[in-house]
Design a protein that fits this description.
It is a single chain. This protein is α/β, with parallel strands linked by helices and 362 residues long. The protein folds into two domains: 3-118 and 351-358, Enolase-like, domain 1 (2-Layer Sandwich); 123-339, TIM Barrel (Alpha-Beta Barrel), CATH 3.20.20.120. Helices cover 40% and strands 20% of the residues. It contains 13 helices and twelve strands. Strands 5-6-7-8-9 form a five-stranded parallel sheet, with helices on one face. It has a four-stranded mixed sheet with strand order 10-4-12-11. It has a three-stranded antiparallel sheet with strand order 1-2-3. Strand 5 (163-167), helix 6 (173-187) and strand 6 (192-196) form a beta-alpha-beta unit. Helix 2 packs antiparallel against helix 3 and helix 9 runs parallel beside helix 11 (278-290). It starts with a strand and ends with a helix.
Amino acid sequence: MKIKQVKTTLLSLPLKRELATSIHRVSRVETVLVEVVTESGLEGFGLVFAFTRGQARAMKAMVEDLAQGIVGEEAVFVEKIWEKMWKRINFVGWSGLAVMAMCPIDVALWDIVGKAAKMPLYKIFGGYRDKLLLYQSEGQWLSYSKEDLIAEAREFVDQGFKAIKVRIGKPTLQEDLDRVEAVRKAVGDRILLCADANQGFTVNHAIELGKRLADYNLYWYEEPVPVNDLEGSARIAEAVEIPLASGETVYTRDGILHMLRQRAADILMPDLARMGGITEWRKAAALIDSFHVPVSPHIFTEFTAHAAAAAPQVIITEYMPWFDELVVDPFKIEEGYLVLPEEPGLGLVLNPRAVEKYAVRE
């Protein structure tokens, strides 16, 4: 079952509401859709995204370059193909968009593997659970007023979510405290509440705020400082009672290993794209487990779900339904849990009308 073709399509997906964090303001998710076609007719798909059109174009070009080296390979030899792509990007470096471009190809290949075996991927990976606890992450942005935060948080609870993430990073410490307090009061003590600074603080500010946030029974305190400041992150983790979550912007298990050795976080958040796909994500998760550290996957809910469902160390999964419209039947969400599908592969079917609607004409 050899690879016949790798198709790429640039999509521009509008967000329901502008995304604002301590470092980004985004109204559209610029996405590269990748479809791998085999000689037998089986197909799989994956995607990767960026926050600017130029970055997405660069990713698309890198995917197309990688594709040149894998056409003709056996599609189910996923490890071999991952290694081949890894060697191909050696000259430009084993991080950044080169690694991210590997992700959608790798995901598409696993989709094909599952379809060929006529099994959902989470069962092929060994299966540990058939549903995943989610935290609602699409919202609670820094641009929201307190009234917006409160109304949306209550809406999330009414939808059945048992965990919510609020963004912090306002100009003053007191503003962040007020926002977290408002959401905590709105949802009560039974809802798990996370606070994400998106790497926007200094170490001293992060420690001061983190100590005061302890009054609000947070599930975790996420990425207060830039992820490359491992020593600073370790200082915060040591000084603050709230578990520190980080790792979404490090690349491959090598980046994860550096964080583990520095004890830079209490919870690690490997990102599917920055791992280079499912193949490396599973290896990173196993590495994290060997250090007895819990895992929470970053974004890519649809594509990480199967690997997460087979990983005992996963405690909760991010719910960010940016790509729901691209598939015919998105995964079912019941009482705050994602229910794994029984259909083969990813269990998702592309919606051609949506792909056509959001395709960028160049």
